[in-house]
Amino acid sequence: MGMLDGVKIVSFNHFMLGPLAAQNLGDLGADVVMIEPIGGAFQRQWGGGNTFVGGESVAFLVANRNKRSIALDLKLDAGRDIALALMKDADVVMENFRPDIMGRLGLGWETARAANPRLIFASASGWGSSGPYVSRPGQDLLIQARSGLAMITGSKSAPPTPVGVSATDHHGGVVFASAILAALVRQGRTGKGARVEVDLMSAALDLQQESIVAHLNGPRERGIRSPEHIAGWLYQAPYGFYRTTNGHIAISICTLELLGTVLECPELAAMTEADGWEQREEATGLIQDVIEGDSTEAWCDKFEAHAIWHAPVMGYDAVVSDPQIRHNGNLVKSKLASGETVTLVAHAASYDGERPGVRLAPQPIGAQSREILMELGYDGARIRQLESDGAVAMAD
């Protein structure tokens, strides 16, 4: 695609939020150099349902395409010198270590800005770079718990429920990438660098804007746990999931009058829009009593005929076969260095009618160490010495 052709990014990111953000920028054409420890980032060996392809964990594969890999020991002067040389030549440095780590390595914001005044230095953390939680581990599940996200998920009859994915990591990655893009626009216009900071807690609150604003500006006594079947505390009936004979169906926005007519339920058809709020438990009970009498497919056909917004609740195997997902090209296959093929989720946007593809599959540890060092001006003898000293590692 080349939207970010010529933009150089040095990524010190690990696990999910940071790598996803860097991958988004790499998808758009940026040259992303991923700096890993000599033994590789820890997510290569853990995560993603204990699923591995070509010896790599899915937790690594989902967030590290379109990047070049160099493996450095940043505890050695020679390793830090290489990292600093990369930073001097970069447009963006990204990192999501705990707030004090880059400074302790001698690669923090002040050092980076002195070496490269136009640099965008972008950091992501769990809680922020200061404050009472700065030393605590900032991890998706913990953020879901403390941000209210788990509390608003699930019904009154269920305990607080974590979202089924690393929601704050994934949304945080989008926030991180968009913040860097904003800084790149200013850099392009003025030549000025920037200190960009994002955190998981802020991303979690950003993800809940509608719910939080509704709660803080409305009657608190109504609580933030939803009735059975309703998709969330701030929605009226019928908005939610209902059990059928062979699965579940989502019913979205429609009047209770229309839905009651289609379901042949006079009591429901007599309800008003206000009743959708004030009597939503009674309404959803009436709906469930009828819906559970037929199949998901039968209800989909009936609702389609009456223009009621609906969808079957599908698992991943059905998602793969969905005709709209196939049409959109949301899943893409890529061949790894091992020769095995992995299926990945494609870039989420298209540009001029085209969706960015995979220029470079997720790479083995240090796959581009030699070429990156040569670009920095290191000769063959010096590269061999750095490898011998353990400052840098090459792919096998």
Concise structural overview:
The chain has 396 residues and is of the alpha/beta class. It has two domains: 8-207 and 329-393, 3-Layer(aba) Sandwich (Rossmann fold); 224-243 and 248-312, formyl-coa transferase, domain 3 (2-Layer Sandwich), CATH 3.30.1540. The chain contains 19 helices and 14 strands.
Considering the chains and any ligands shown, give keywords for the structure.
396 residues; alpha/beta; formyl-coa transferase, domain 3; 7-stranded mixed sheet; 3-stranded antiparallel sheet; 19 helices; elongated
Explain the overall architecture:
- By secondary structure, the protein is α/β, with parallel strands linked by helices.
- The chain has two domains: 8-207 and 329-393, Crotonobetainyl-coa:carnitine coa-transferase, domain 1 (Rossmann fold, 3-Layer(aba) Sandwich), CATH 3.40.50; 224-243 and 248-312, formyl-coa transferase, domain 3 (2-Layer Sandwich), CATH 3.30.1540.
- The protein is built from 19 helices and 14 strands.
- It has helices spanning 17-27, 58-61, 77-88, 101-104, 109-115, 140-147, 149-152, 167-190, 200-207, 209-216, 256-262, 266-269, 273-278, 280-291, 296-305, 316-321, 323-328, 369-375, 380-389; strands at 8-11, 31-36, 52-53, 56-57, 68-72, 92-95, 120-125, 194-199, 240-243, 248-251, 310-312, 331-335, 341-345, 392-393.
- It has a seven-stranded mixed β-sheet, with helices on both faces.
- A hairpin with a 4-residue loop joins strand 9 (240-243) and strand 10 (248-251).
- The longest helix is centred in the middle third of the chain and has 24 residues, at 167-190.
- It is elongated, with a radius of gyration of 25 Å.
- It starts with 7 loop residues before the first strand and ends with a strand.
